[in-house]
Specification:
Number of helices: 15
Order of helices and strands: HHHHHHHHHHHHEEHHEEEH
Strand order of the largest sheet: 1-2-3-4-5
Radius of gyration: 23 Å
Shape: globular
Length: about 400
């Protein structure tokens, strides 16, 4: 696609997104007028909504999030300390620019960049609570004392304030928990990339898992963290419903690392060789596709055909886990309810990687090869092409 066509595509994309946001405002003339004026003002004094030439997908995905933040700012006029129409503007890193706009309208002090993600979420009662929390922190209140979704101790709060800027708010809370409980940065990254989850109702147990990993981090290989988390989640929350060897009140207290590893390996074996036990409640059940496109790429030098396709049935899921010697078949319930999607990367028809993508956030959550090995640089380059084409989020590693 030429640069001129990319520019036309970007303009049409933004126009359609803006039209959709105006539509959600209904007949509220004040909100519609404020949104129009604010969009014009932001375009005149910043590059927040400018799409870089040649970057067709990734920056458009970011622009979509920033438009959501602007609309939410309009809807929360009750939180404004001064009019965003008087914001002096800024050019540079998009998240820094957004933080500047939010701080000008809503508070006095700079907050961690991760908190800007609060404003890019779809408007709801839950997002309204977090938006109010954002304003309180921006006005100088302690996040720890405001009962955030994931609890923080004093030491954790300090790590939250210094959390990496590319994280979301909930991820930054988890990062702070790991670091505050003694985990190093590598462990924090692995836990964020795992399926430990960010559910407030499971926070107490999840913190016990984090503490266990932190206490054993010298002996744990970082590549083990994700698979161990999958087993722990299964043993704690799913084993009873799937007629497995369920342990009432599953806990990590007093468990040795070798014992946990053996239990995980035994679970993996049961998934590979006992499919009826795993899928007793369905017979080759299928689920709806996410709408994300499959991918094909022919390497120029080797002529190899790379494909990425979505796994859409329990049989496919089982075959993927059996062939790749990992526990992806345990993700059946999450695939059925649409919370996650599984994709298979193949080279000339042979399975190479399994990918987990969260449909709601369009984030690549996990990438695993045979027996949970890490992806090679060559494989990650292929995944990066698909990620760019689909406008997906997430770090590749």
């Amino acid at each position: 696609m030429t640069s001129q066509k990319q520019g036309i595509f970007a303009d049409l994309f933004l126009q359609n997104e803006i039209a959709d946001h105006f539509g959600t405002l209904g007949h509220n003339k004040k909100n519609r007028k404020l949104l129009k004026r604010l969009l014009v003002h932001i375009s005149e004094c910043s590059d927040l909504l400018q799409v870089e030439e040649g970057a067709r997908y990734t920056t458009l995905t970011e622009a979509k999030l920033f438009l959501m933040a602007i609309k939410n700012l309009v809807l929360r006029k009750d939180l404004h300390l001064q009019s965003p129409l008087e914001w002096p503007g800024l050019y540079g890193s998009k998240r820094v620019v957004l933080e500047s706009l939010l701080r000008f309208a809503l508070g006095k002090y700079q907050v961690p960049l991760a908190m800007t993600s609060i404003w890019t979420e779809a408007f709801s009662s839950e997002s309204m609570q977090l938006q109010t929390l954002y304003t309180q922190v921006s006005c100088g209140m302690s996040l720890r004392k405001l009962n955030p979704p994931l609890s923080l101790a004093r030491k954790m709060e300090r790590f939250f304030l210094d959390s990496p800027g590319h994280l979301t708010f909930m991820q930054a809370l988890r990062w702070a928990q790991v670091r505050g409980l003694g985990g190093n940065e590598s462990l924090a990254r692995e836990i964020l990339d795992s399926n430990l989850g960010l559910l407030p109702e499971r926070d107490e147990f999840h913190q016990s898992v984090i503490l266990y990993f932190a206490n054993h981090q010298a002996a744990i290989k970082m590549a083990e963290v994700g698979p161990l988390v999958d087993y722990i989640n299964f043993a704690k929350y799913e084993a009873k419903s799937q007629w497995q060897h369920w342990q009432a009140n599953f806990s990590l207290k007093g468990r040795k690392l070798d014992s946990l590893r053996k239990a995980m390996q035994a679970w993996h074996e049961s998934l590979r060789y006992s499919p009826r036990q795993m899928f007793h409640f369905c017979n080759a059940v299928k689920w709806k596709a996410t709408g994300m496109e499959a991918f094909e790429y022919i390497a120029e030098k080797e002529g190899a055909l790379w494909t990425i396709t979505e796994v859409l049935s329990s049989d496919e899921l089982y075959q993927e886990g059996k062939a790749m010697h990992h526990c992806v078949s345990s993700y059946l319930s999450s695939c059925l309810n649409g919370k996650t999607s599984i994709w298979s990367l193949r080279c000339n028809g042979l399975r190479v990687l399994t990918l987990e993508v969260i449909p709601k956030s369009r984030k690549i959550q996990q990438i695993r090869g045979l027996a949970n090995r890490r992806a090679t640089m060559e494989e990650l380059k292929i995944v990066a092409l698909w990620k760019r084409m689909e406008g997906l989020q997430g770090d590749l590693k």
